[in-house]
Design goal:
Length: 298
């Protein structure tokens, strides 16, 4: 009997180890699919044009150079893009957090008339919205076109982020709020002294989400701004890629025509995504905790 049990355990262990090997191989292939293009972009940005054109998949440049970055930053649009994107971040993300936090906390309090109606009305915006034309007409009536505020105010509350934050807040003990109100605390005092300190993980998560969204802002800026001195970084990258495609397709050459080579394009990609990537490690602990709680409780 013991021999049969040991044999069964050995067979199960062998099958389990084989399954582990298959899963590990699949994850390695998936990781390679994700990492290799990223490494190729970095390597191409540090390679010469000749070396980049000779290799279809460049992982390590033979003669690294920073000439692509030097030529890239000679374009004044890069610095304008950094300034505009930083301005959108500094002004837009706090507004997004204030609106999302206050709306989420307000709709966790279901003891006032119309709370459920307001909640479902907010959810409805995930399925239907007015579109870009009514938004543009609204910005024209407010006199905000060609102003940075048109981009900032066009994006107030993300419905999904609101749901995640509200779900997190509903998990907080109701007894804490009741005790504070017995002691005479107002709703604002409850929010700032109890709810927000206990909601640091989800606030950090939503902060990262909004920061990434604002950093990647380009469509609203393309529609509302139309000013060369207020062009965000992502729109600069789009312009560089499109200019390169047009110049190459028409075979235009000359001293007045900028030639954005493949190395300069990849360098533009790196300088565009590097700052937001450097922020993530500082918020990773809160990000993982907040998103897991929001996902499980939802």
């Amino acid at each position: 009997m013991n021999a049969k049990v040991k044999k069964a355990e050995t067979g199960f262990r062998e099958r389990f180890e084989m399954l582990d090997g298959v899963i590990l191989a699949f994850l390695l292939v998936l990781a390679a699919i994700i990492v290799i293009p990223f490494v190729n972009v970095i390597a191409t940005s540090f390679a010469s044009q000749k070396e980049a054109s000779e290799s279809a998949l460049l992982l390590v440049p033979r003669q690294p150079t920073i000439d692509n970055y030097y030529r890239l930053f000679q374009d004044p649009r890069i610095l304008i893009g950094y300034k505009t994107t930083a301005l959108i971040l500094l002004l837009g993300v706090p507004i997004n957090l204030i609106l999302t936090t206050s709306l989420a906390y307000g709709l966790t309090r279901i003891n006032f008339p119309g709370a459920k109606f307001l909640f479902f009305a907010v959810l409805l915006t995930m399925l239907f919205n007015g579109g870009i034309v009514p938004m543009y007409l609204l910005m024209m009536q407010l006199g905000l076109t060609k102003s940075i505020w048109s981009v900032i105010l066009a994006y107030g509350v993300n419905t999904f982020y609101f749901i995640v934050m509200r779900t997190y807040m509903t998990t907080l003990p109701e007894s804490l709020i009741e005790s504070a109100k017995i002691d005479g605390a107002s709703e604002l005092q409850v929010l700032f002294r109890i709810i927000l300190p206990l909601s640091k993980p989800i606030i950090a998560t939503i902060l990262l989400f909004y920061a990434v969204d604002r950093w990647n802002e380009w469509f609203n800026a393309m529609v509302f701004l139309r000013r060369n001195d207020l062009i965000p970084l992502q729109l600069v990258l789009r312009t560089i890629v499109m200019d390169s495609t047009i110049v190459n397709s028409l075979s235009i050459s000359g001293p007045r025509v900028p030639r954005f080579t493949e190395g300069i394009q990849t360098a533009a990609i790196i300088v565009t995504m590097l700052p937001i990537m450097l922020v993530f490690p500082f918020l990773q602990k809160y990000f993982l905790k907040g998103i897991m709680i929001g996902a499980i409780k939802a």
